[in-house]
Amino acid sequence: MMELKSKETIVRQRYAAGAKERAEKLCCPVNYEQSYLSVIPQEVIERDYGCGDPSRYLRPGETVLDLGSGTGKICFIAAQIVGSTGKVIGVDMTGEMLEVARRNAPIVAERLGYANVEFRKGRIQDLALDLELLDRQLRENPITSAASFLAAEELAGELRVKHPLVASDSVDVVVSNCVLNLVEPESKRKLFDEIFRVLKKGGRAVICDITSDEEVPEAMQTDPELWSGCISGALTEEGFLQAFEQAGFYGIQILKRDAQPWRTVQGIEFRSVTIEAYKGKQGECFERNQAVIYRGPFKEVLDDDNHRMERGKRYAVCDKTYSLYKKAPYSESFEFVDPVVDIPSDEAKLFDCSRNAARHPRETKGQNYSLTTEASSKCRDAGGCC
Ligand SMILES: C[S@@+](CC[C@H](N)C(=O)[O-])C[C@H]1O[C@@H](n2cnc3c(N)ncnc32)[C@H](O)[C@@H]1O
After folding, report:
1. CA–CA dist 104, 98 (Å, integer)
2. Residue 90 pairs with which residues in a beta bridge?
3. Which of 63-67, 174-178, 350-354 is predicted with the least confidence, judged by mean pLDDT?
C-alpha cells in the first residue's frame, strides 16, 4: 500500500537514487541514433530511464523544452539536432538528476563547439514556478509559522507571474520521455494546460510515454513501486490523446506505438506510445473565399474544430483553417482552392460559421466569371490531357 508520503515524494526519492546509480527496473530499452551518443558521457547514457525517442522529430533552429529531463540524454541529443541556432531547456524536479545533467553540460558543449542547453528546476505541472528562485527567497524569509507559510504561498504566486521558470508562448517544441505518467492524477489536467501555455502558436508537443490498454485499477495506483516505476500512473492510450484534445491542441496523432508491451501487470498491457499535438487553432475566423477538398482515402474526416468533410467535395473554410491545413500534419490530405480574386486580410469580413459548409466553385471564381481558354501549355508539355 502507498505510504503517507505523496506520490511526488516517492517519485523524487526513487529518481534521486536512480541519478546516483543505474536502476535496471526503470529502463525500457530504446534505440537512440548512435551518431548522437558519441559526445554524451557514459554516466548520462547509462542512467537513461526513457521509453522512446522524441528527439528524432526535431528540426534545426528550434527552441525545445524537455519535461523531466533526468540526466539530460534527450537534451544532449536535441542540442545536436537543433544546432547552434537552436536552444534546449531541460526541466526536472529532482536535484540529483539536475546535478548529473548540469555537470555534464559543459563537457557536451566543449565536444560540440557550442553551448545551447540549460537545465532548470521545476515541476512540470507548474512550469511557471522556478523552485531554485523560490529556495533563494525562502532562505532569506524562512517558514517558521503559519503566517510565514501563507506568505510563502503568496511569494510563489508572485514569482510565477514576475519571473516564470518557462514563459508563456516561448517554446517551439515540448518533448518528454517517460515522465507524464509520474504526475499525480489531480495535477494531470494542469500538466497538459502548462504544455499548451508555454508553446508558441504553431508550436507542437512530441511526447513519448507509457500508456495502458485498460483503465488502471485504484489498487494498482496506490502501489508506490508500480507508480514510481512508470506503470500505474499511465493514462489509457485513448485518455492520453483526449488529454491533449481537452487542453486545446489540434492535429493530434500517434507517431509510434510499440506493438509489444513493455510490461503486463495483472493482464493490463503497458506500452510506449509517441504522440504529436499542435497548438494554434484558436483565434478569429475571417472569410477570404477559400475552399478545400479532402483527398481521401477515408470517406469522410472530422477535424478538432468539428469540420466534417466528405472525400472529393469542396468546403468553405475560414482563413485560419485554410492556413492550418496548408501546414503539417494536414497539408498532404487536402487540395487547396484559392479565389480568383484575392480578398486582402485587412478587408476580410468575419467568416459565417453557421453557413452550409459546401462551397460552390462560383463562390471562389465569382458569379460573372466567363473565361474560355485553349488547352494549357503546361498540360500539353507534360504529355497529358489528350
Ligand atoms: C522515468 S525518468 C525519465 C528521465 C529522462 N526523460 C530520460 O529519458 O531518461 C523521470 C524523470 O522525471 C522527473 N520527474 C518526475 N515527475 C516530475 C515532475 N512532476 N516534475 C518534474 N520532473 C519530474 C524525475 O525526477 C526523473 O528525472
Report:
1. 10
2. 66, 119
3. 350-354
Residue ID of nearest Cα to ligand 1 atom 25: 94
Q: Which residues contact 274 (CB under 8 A, 6 or more apart)?
A: 52, 53, 54, 57, 206, 207, 208, 254, 255, 256, 257
What letter represents residue 191's amino acid? L
Ligand 1 in contact with 171 (CB < 6 A)?
A: no
Measure CA 247 to chain center: 11
Task: Give the residue from 295, 124, 140 showing the smallest Cα distance to 196.
Answer: 124
d(CA 54, CA 255): 10
Query: For residues 122 and 93, what is the distance between their CA atoms, to the nearest angstrom?
Result: 5
- Alpha carbon nearest to ligand 1 atom 10, residue: 179
- Which run of H or E residues covers position 120? strand 117-121
Give the span between the Cα atoms of 130 and 117, in whole angstroms.
17
Q: Where are the alpha helices (DSSP H) in 141-214?
A: 146-162, 185-198
Closest residue to atom 12 of ligand 1, CA basis: 68
What average pLDDT does the chain have? 94
Ligand 1 atom nearest residue 122's Cα: 21
How far apart CA 156 and CA 162 sit, in angstroms, is 10
Indicate if ligand 1 lies below 6 Å from the C-beta of 123.
Answer: yes
Q: Is the CB of 50 under 6 A from ligand 1?
A: yes
pLDDT, tens digit, for every residue of 277-326? 999 999 999 999 999 999 999 999 999 999 999 999 999 999 999 999 99
Nine cell digits for residue 6: 505523496
* Nearest to 333, CA basis, from 317, 353, 350: 317
With a CB cutoff of 8 Å and minimum separation 6, the contacts of 43 are 71, 100, 104
